[in-house]
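Please check our next protein.
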Amino acid sequence: MDTFTIGGDLDVHRLGFGAMRITGEGIWGPPDDPEEAKRLLRHVVEVGVDLIDTADSYGPEVSENLIAEALHPYPDGLVIATKGGLRRTGPGQWPRDARPERLKKACEASLRRLKLDRIDLYQLHSPDPQVPYEDSVGALKELQDEGKVRHVGISNVSVEELHRARGIVEVVTVQNRYNLEDRGSEDVLDVCEEAGIGFIPWFPLATGRLAKPRDALDRIAEEQDATPAQVALAWLLARSPVMLPIPGTSSIEHFEENLAAARIELSDDELAAIGSAAQG
């Protein structure tokens, strides 16, 4: 796989792993089989994936705890990225809370759960409309100054919010929703590419109508002896050198299927056809 350097000093393969789905239904509570979740995490690292993305809100706390139980002490080169700024009040409920005091407590709790002295990449999960954005980002800058955070990322932001954050701290990654069917963050991706900021697309596997028989994505997948989801991931990797997809799953088999997407080479004509179908 191709690599990307986050923040100038963290070299990672461009296809990572999102650890949201190793929790229970509704991203709430433990998984049905915690031991299987830990086997998956160990397998992810064994095959060379070195970027795992999680958050304190996944479970809540479940994903971070499982990562530590499965992988600590961590192998050299493994980057664990986590996030703070959301609360969990029930399955499927994600109220925002990005008050500075809350973010600092959340980061310190993540450090304890992950058994780390410093988090390589700590991300603000989402802007909180009840809190000035500068205050939330400033809290992450203070955590960095205190040595608790190595690099800072932000998530679910507009171009304007990205510019404001960059005025406070060096932003090394942006994590926004982005996939073949939803390219509403195209302008944010363009800024990231120009600035060399890693772009982590969440919900990367959405194909929807594009995977229907006889559509361009389905046709190209058949020609490539691949699934539409694999081709969608390959398209993301080809879209920009700063793109860092983190498809998540609770299944080793599904993980292997996702990982195989990194070996798919799409021609310029195929990329154009897929892109045009998505915009049609």
